[in-house]
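Translate sequence into structure tokens.
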Amino acid sequence: MNRTILILGLLLAAVWYSPAQAQDANKATATVTPNPLEVRGDSVRLKAKIIIPAHRKLKDGGTLTIIPRLGDYKYDKFTATYGPLTNVRKNGINADVSITLPFITDMIGKDIDFTYVYDAGGDRIAGEVDDVAQCCSTVGLWFINNAQYQFATVDTVRTRDTQPLKLLAQFNFPVDISKLSKDAYQRDVKAIGDFLKKNPESTITIRGFASPEGTMKRNVQLSQERSKQAADWLQAKLKEMGYSGSLGKATFKTETTAEDWRGFKETLMASDYPDATKQKVIDAINAGKPAAETEKNVMALLGGKSKRVEELLQPLRRSIVVVETNKAMRPALNDKQLDSVAVAYISGNMEKYQLREILDKEEWLEAAQRTKAPSGKMSLLLAYYDVYREDYRAINDLAILKLVREPDAPASDGIAIVGGDDAIVGVGGDFDSKFKNDIKKEPQDVNAYKYKYKIKYDNPQETVVDFKYKGAFTESINLLELAYQLNRNDWAVLSNLGAAYMVVENYPKAIQYLTQSLAQKNSPQAHYNLGLAYAQTGQFAESIRHFDQAGNLQGVYYNRGLAKLLGGDSAGAKADLLRHTQLLPDHAMGYYALAIAGARSGDINTISENLPKAIQRKKVLSDIAQEDLEFRNFHSVDAFKKAADDDKSK
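Result follows.
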């Protein structure tokens, strides 16, 4: 599955205990629905009924509060509604309360208990009701969170046939010197001369640059001298090489850049300095300090002047020559040409200034989108963003690329086991050796992780690790928020922003942005993301409605099947999950979910047909199924025992 996370939680208990009612010493009783408890999205939601029988201490007009406890977790109090409103001493109290508890994996295998307090004018009656229901059925955690991201729309119609014909050249200068040697750049001069022969009414723009070192006064002087020196030198060389007749109608222009911090940032980003150092340097450049202070701060961050720093500065001492004509237009580049330019830049055989001059905006963005390698795509997008910072599309694409490149996110169909006498939790993830090594110790910064896991390795002596995997979602969300500020009506930006907020479990914002996206365009991607957001918050009717409009996007049949299962439509769930297993026959959880659909509808045949297929693909599901609360009514049935036996499922 594409960037999916699957968390599977199931209960191991040596003895199944499911009382219809539980009561305290004062004969108060409590019932809960659903029983067993169900995880729905990010929480456990239940309705509890507390009945306190008639008691001499009960007085009319009091307030009943209930405090739930699940295992070691004690929650805030909830205020109950109850009746009759009068004569409670004679009639007792019949109270109802709706409770939503944030789900924590350690709840699994625990019983929910209630402490209650009835207070009427200072007279209080209190008690506890223990072992009311067990936690939890966790089908609500199995949704594959493969959010759909959409790159920005690029004009690929190729009507851009008005691009002026251009030729580029770059003349480099030694440090603090503005003069070019007599025999330098012969090939470039000949190319310029040949261009002028064919296009005599061309404009020759010479841009002089100085690297950001030394005083501003000296750098202004150097950049001006380099522009003029390059212009004079080029004209002399063209005449010397026999192109005098082509110079009559040409127009020469000069431009200067006294301190080329933009170029410095480009060479820095292409260097092997650590990312953290690069970011600090860029922040110092962008801080708006005086030139001398900026140079001092940057050099300090880079460790002072050195050969390594000189490698950053040397390419900036230059003049760039752009020869172009409005009399001759080139057609838009075709796919092969775009790919060729992209490869040249990514491999280091083309400078960013050449990209700026060769490609127009649409071609540049299209070249980035056509590039398959994530590192190459990122390189082209960063270069584009540095030139066209106002283009929300580049910001959107950078954010998406960062989202889909999150490292080491577990796959959807792996299961790791957590040991313990009371509970077993399966966690999505086929972990490679590097990832395993990373998580054998508690991370120093748990906030750097998003998804909570408990993992026990084959060696029982190894430590069970409880940690969170978060990834760099904050940066991507910030970029998408910026893209949204630049264009509040782009459906792709809105859908991506909603999907990103969904991944970090900010469901209200996710639903807000995804709804806005659909108002702009009725896209299957936004419907799919909204279906996931509603599923994660337990709003299964809305979830199904949006999944219905998501087309055949990968994961839609599985996720909609789970939503239908949790919404009480076992038949509809079977149909969707069956279709999912046909499309992805190696996904073990598809068959396991089908077996649970069978259990919820009392269909032992569906269980017998699909549970062995799940176990064939993931052997650990045999142990899980034999203790799974979903199969509690079948644990003693011979047909179920046979289906759940991994030896019979080979």
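Note: Residues 216-240 form the longest helix (25 residues).
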